[in-house]
Amino acid sequence: MKTLPIVFAAFASLPAWADEARLTGPLLPAYKTECGSCHTPFPPGLLNPGDWKKTMAGLDQHFGTDAALDAKTAGQIGAWLQQHAGRTMGRSPDPEPRLTTTRWFVREHREVPARAWQDPRVKNAANCAACHKGADQGQFGERELSIPGYGRRHDD
Ligand code: HEC
Ligand code: HEC
Does pTM surpass 0.90? Predict the structure, then answer.
């Protein structure tokens, strides 16, 4: 934990492609199907390896739902998440890890007006697709961005 600010400072000075590299890349089909059925298949790089491990270990009691998988599928998805996890991503402060509460996420979203988070079309920060129109395809670029009540950031 002590080294966290240094990691973040270094990270902030990296060129944009460093962010891109952690977000793009094809999603494992099983991940997209199984972990994208109730919500956005979140980019694996937005949680660190330990947090993904915790998530995968608690699927039978997953945020009040049962998201348990057969051992083979769970093993496949778990291994893929470990491979693509964000190695410099800070830990989520929640007992059930949330990528939406990591320092990286909060910082990346600091310009989002408080009112936008409460818009009924958003409701929840985990509802990525409310603003990121390409979220289900793993697209989080500015061109696909549209905040409910605020419109598109770029008209094209
Ligand atoms: C049966 C539905 C369901 C399935 C299947 C499911 N989830 Fe979830 N997941 C939820 C719910 C409900 C929440 C909590 C949403 C909220 O209230 O913020 C959640 C939240 C999460 C969060 C935290 C999001 C945040 O707020 O930052 C992560 C990470 C996550 N799920 C990962 C997974 C992974 C990985 C899989 C596949 C192995 C999966 N989920 C499959 C229902 C599901
Ligand atoms: C209320 C609207 C809203 C929601 C919901 C939202 N975002 Fe964002 N997101 C934004 C805005 C605005 C930015 C900042 C864009 C900028 O400043 O360039 C952003 C930036 C990002 C970026 C950085 C993109 C880049 O190219 O630098 C990523 C990655 C991202 N969001 C992922 C997510 C994920 C994953 C979720 C769901 C767990 C989510 N967002 C939910 C509005 C939202």
Answer: no
